[in-house]
Amino acid sequence: MSDLFSLNRAARLVGATRADLQKKIQSGEMFSFDGKVAIAELLLCYPDAQLEDTAEFKRVTQIKERAFGKRVFERALPDAEVLAARITELSKTLAHSQAQLEQFNALLERLWDKFGEMEGQCHGEARTKMEGLKCWIKQEVAAAMEPGFSNPLAIKDGILSVMTAQVTLLPSQQDFLVEGRDTLLEAAMRAGLSLNYGCSGGNCGLCKGRVVSGQVKKTRHHDFTLSETEKEQGIILMCSNTAVSDITLEASVTGGVQDIPFQQIAATVKAKAMLTAEVMLLHLQTPRSQRLRFLAGQKVSLRVGHSFTAELPIASCPCDDRNLLFHVRRQTGNLFSDYVFERLKTGEVVEVEGPQGEFILHEKSGRPLYFLAFDGGFAPIKSLVEHAMSLEVETIHLHWIASAPEQLYLPNVGRAWGDALDDFHYSEHTTGFDLRVSNAKREAQLLHHLQEMAGTDPAMTLGDVYLAGPEAAIGVAEKFFLSRGMPKTRVFVEAVR
Q1: CATH for 262-356, among 3.30.300.30, 2.60.120.1440, 2.40.30.10, 3.20.20.80?
Q2: 194-244 per-position pLDDT tens digit
Q3: Based on C-alpha coordinates, what's the Rg of the chain?
Q4: pLDDT for 260-272, tens place per residue?
Q5: Would the N or C end of the chain have less CB density within 10 A of its end CB?
Q6: Residue 57 has what pLDDT?
Q7: C-alpha to C-alpha distance for 123 and 119, rounded to whole angstroms
């Protein structure tokens, strides 16, 4: 077992976030080696780390006590064969350590025999020194063989090795953990990484990756046929394989919207729910064999009935590409809105086309993130925030600015994020006028609101700002931030009707 951990693995072991560790490295509190940290460094910075603090230990305990139902119990554990393989690997490590211990004991016996020979050849002061040396070695060996300090992080890493496997991607050098029965593709998406893929059902072959080192296991049947040459090269389909051991995988990560193909999918209505009298949550589900690949913050065109269409932002995270959420606003007289509110039924087919748009998260920025959602602009902002959380972004500020209190149609979501995360800050604002309609007086009032927000948080202009909502409102907000010296490369806008 290595004494060097990736930041993802180290964060899990000490119960911190990746961002916490990066802060300590940047401040000089912790040293890193090629992007990894040593177990000794972790113990110095987190001396109170206890075995019982680890999520893996708690989860194993919950499973043992059958605190969850059967489905959750089965989901939390890896596949039986994968679990057996990981335990076998740990057993090999233990056997190797035991063999080394036996060799060490045999070496000690030969050392004592050698000392015996040397003592017979020594006289006087030399013999006294030899006896003192033997006594010192015996004491040191006895101390080394004592159980002594039990390293909690080594124990945690043993549990983590059974419950998860680490994947390191080439050439990007990003890494993520594979948990439970997730495939490589599913685990990467949960970690906020967008690998190249198509159907995610084993039909298209677009999610090919090459296993450079480590062991994988096929967990799902796939119809796509790999050539013998590809198999010999270690090529696999990421949607149909999981990691048995820690692996290094050669696979490309999406660089931007240009890497996402245009798709046409016949989804079905999974559920409809009224959030307020004027806003509906529409839940669409794609076929298992044709999921929507998109980036957080993008939008799609929906077609219902015969030809009623609308372009709507996706209000869910790409990590669940089969379940798509939309916030549909009631617009009397609008054919699409009328059909969705009055006639659309569960199980009905909705045509999805897209994705479109470049309102996406700029992941490599490293700056604090400020999200400003104006009325229905909360939909794409929600997608971006969920993606940012999956990436464990250090600091997130979310401001929901509404025309009236009823426009805050999902306030509990932001509050829950704020309660659950230390560096997540959520606040609500109401202007008292329709943000969709602009005039000189309303523009002045909105500027006053923005000035108050910036006044309470002067660091806002040092971060990246994402604005989404009615065109009139985001136009004012964009001008406000640019007037305060922020470059356009750090102010991102998306108009939402």
Answers
A1: 2.40.30.10
A2: 888 877 778 888 899 999 999 999 988 888 899 999 999 999 999 999 999
A3: 29
A4: 889 999 999 999 9
A5: N
A6: 46
A7: 8
Q: How confident is the model at residue 146 (pLDDT cuts 50, 70, 90)?
A: low
Closest CA to 4 of 32, 23, 24: 32
Beta strand segments in 308-377, E: 308-313, 323-329, 349-356, 369-374
Please give the sequence-ordered ranges of beta strands (E in DSSP) within 208-252, or none if there are none: 208-213, 216-218, 235-237, 241-243, 247-250
Pick 89 or 372 by higher pLDDT: 372
Give the per-residue pLDDT at 56.
47
pLDDT of residue 279: 96
Question: Quick one: what percent of the chain has pLDDT higher than 90?
Answer: 49
Contact assessment for residue 288 and residue 265, using Cβ atoms and an 8 Å cutoff: no
Tokens of residue 95, six digits: 């056997």
Q: And the tokens for 181?
A: 């029965």
Domain boundaries, the chain: 163-257, 262-356, 369-495
Backbone angles phi, psi at 326, to 5 degrees: -135, 145
Other Cβ atoms less than 10 A from the Cβ of 431: the count is: 19
CB 212 within 8 A of CB 234: yes
**pLDDT over 60 (residue 315):** yes
Q: What is the dihedral of CA 199, 200, 204, 206, to 10 degrees?
A: 110
CB 371 within 8 A of CB 466: yes
From the CB of residue 121, how many other CB atoms can be counted at a distance below 10 Å?
9
pLDDT averaged over every residue in the chain: 86
Integer Cα distance of 160 and 231 in angstroms? 29
Cβ–Cβ under 8 Å, residues 419 and 449 = no
Please give, one letter per residue, the 3-state secondary structure of 43-67. Answer: HHHCCCCCHHHCHHHHHHHHHHCCC
CATH of domain 369-495: 3.40.50.80
pLDDT value of position 75: 55
User: What are the φ and ψ backbone dihedral angles of 465, each rounded to 5 degrees?
Assistant: -115, 130
Query: Model pTM?
Result: 0.75
Q: How many CB atoms lie within 10 A of CB 416?
A: 13
Which of 14-23, 57-66, 203-212 has the weakest average pLDDT? 57-66
Q: Which fold has domain 163-257?
A: Ubiquitin-like (UB roll) (3.10.20)
